[in-house]
Amino acid sequence: MIPGPTPVPEKVLQALGRHPIGHRTKEFQELVESTTKNLQWLHQTQNDVLTITGSGTAAMEAGIVSTLSRGDKVICGENGKFGERWVKVAKEFGLEVIEIHSEWGTPLNPEEFKKILEEDKKKEIKAVILTHSETSTGVINDLKTISSYIRKHNIALSIIDCVTSLGACNVPVDEWQLDIVASGSQKGYMIPPGLSFIAISQKAWKAAEKSNLPKFYLNLKSYKKSLLSNSNPYTPAVNLVFALDEALKMMREEGLENIFLRHNKHKLAMSQAVKALNLKLFADEKFLSPSITAINTETMDAEEFRKTIKNNFDILLAGGQDHLKGKIFRVGHLGYVNDRDIITVISAISKTLLDLGKITTKEAGEALLVASKNLK
Ligand SMILES: *Cc1c(COP(=O)(O)O)cnc(C)c1O
Fold this sequence. Notes:
The chain is of the alpha/beta class. It has 2 domains: about 240 residues, Aspartate Aminotransferase, domain 2 (3-Layer(aba) Sandwich); about 120 residues, Aspartate Aminotransferase, domain 1 (Alpha-Beta Complex), CATH 3.90.1150. It contains 13 helices and 13 strands. Strands 1-9-8-7-4-2-3 form a 7-stranded mixed β-sheet, with helices on both faces. The protein is globular, with a radius of gyration of 21 Å. The structure holds pyridoxal-5'-phosphate. Pyridoxal-5'-phosphate binds next to helix 3. The site of pyridoxal-5'-phosphate has 13 residues, from helix 3. It is an enzyme of class 2 (transferase).
């Protein structure tokens, strides 16, 4: 139960085991056509959705290098490990970065984006880069509000890391007019790592015409050109595309609303159980990610706690990153996760706390009760 790689359904695993086919065949083109349509459905968009072979970071980097130019001014929102990564990428490519910070565990403040964008009368800011669901802290940022401020600016593109929000909660790409939305296969998609996805708007394609940052493999224009014939510029991870096809079919069967409801109830069950167990949520409770719950262990060593749960129950939980190592642990509930998984992980955490003498059976019972109330 880590926030990626996430569990993979049997059907999807079986699709992976097929013999690979030529990526220039009609059969593969048909697959690209249908997965692209289903990806547009998942993103709630008419925009192009490109599939590249590479992890989520490749998708974000592709979005940046394909649309921006040397010396461009960008805003980067940073309230966790991934936000920090996009600051590094932007700087690596020589962009002039204005950072908007928020303490890890708290959301970015949309008003700070508004202020800087409004003050940019010369329209020098070319993009706003941020992470929707910050996996390192379990915080979801208010993308809806921030994107409305980006639109008012009119020039800046939005380049959004939706790696742990897409396929977990509502990310209506067209309604919010998001320009670049990046996601990765090993998160909400229920398939192994290796593919990533980029939804890209007409406005972003216009910017791509003028972009002069160095790029080759990650030049999205090549992917767009190939997609016109349902093809790929380079050899894609063919078997992962088989898996993608199956996974997207399963998602369509479940339906977007149901997928969002499922993630929401698991988020509520987890967060309420955590409180009943006298543990502290690391993230601001009004901004909990649908995909990950980060738990503050305070006096306990979170790494020891994680190890005990792995040894006793064979459940892998994620640790804290950087300065949070040993201080928090994180439960991933993204993708192919059901009520049983949630009840099991809560029970495993409760039993471990009982053994450590941190709680009594009263709290353990209460945690299961509040969790079950949400699992209907
Ligand atoms: C997993 C993840 C990524 C992508 O990381 P990769 O290891 O490159 O797949 C990006 N952003 C967030 C928020 C993530 O959780």
